[in-house]
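Write out the 3D structure for:
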Amino acid sequence: MAQIMLNCDLGENESLEQTEQLLAQIDAANIGCGYHAGSPDKTRASIERALKYEVQIGAHPGLALDGGRGQALPTPTEFRDLLEVQIGSFQSSAQALGTRTSYIKLHGSLYHAVETQPTLAAVYIEFLQQQTPAIATFALAAGKFARMANQAGLRVFQEAFADRAYMPDGSLVPRVEQGAVLSHAEAQSRLKKWLQTGQFPTRGGQPITLSADTLCVHGDSPGALELIRDIQAALKTNKIERSASRFS
């Protein structure tokens, strides 16, 4: 792991001041499309600020209900329509500001659905394949969807999560469960172990080995800005460079 990108979920319900503070510290911003949280105006403002800090922008589409984390999943047709509407709106905002969308990262339930629902995964792969110019995707490191997307010839950045607890199968502990979001101290300790061993501790099981292209901190996690700064220091100590140049 010679290089890694720091990314953050933004453009949701955080203040614009917090958005800007986080953008000043990261390499790639997963910006909400104004449906699961935030608004179209917040999306545009977040893109504009990302350009100020020369941060790569990614569209972060999600389900409109339950903050994007509900149990009810869309049908394949509904999922395709959701992607068309939300990505289309995001790309229009980006183009109006003189930039382009570098990647897509699904939000919440959709991110996990493509790991477990082959029909939805197939819809998403087809959508990505039809994008011109080509567009990358972020996907769960060592997950099923990352393998499927790679096999389909797509550009995939495997993602690990600095502030979320893991299950022994490599999936994330559901947010509804206690301890799903790590405390600052827990995140720091686990990051140190990962950088030294390549392994993430898991809940109730053996550690898992994870290799990642990008590391995520959620913008709404407690102490997100402080955690990102701690990650930067740990990467520097371990001589790991930060880079988003592979998008170009």
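Strands lie at 3-10, 28-32, 56-60, 103-104, 136-140, 156-161, 199-202, 205-209, 214-218, 241-242.
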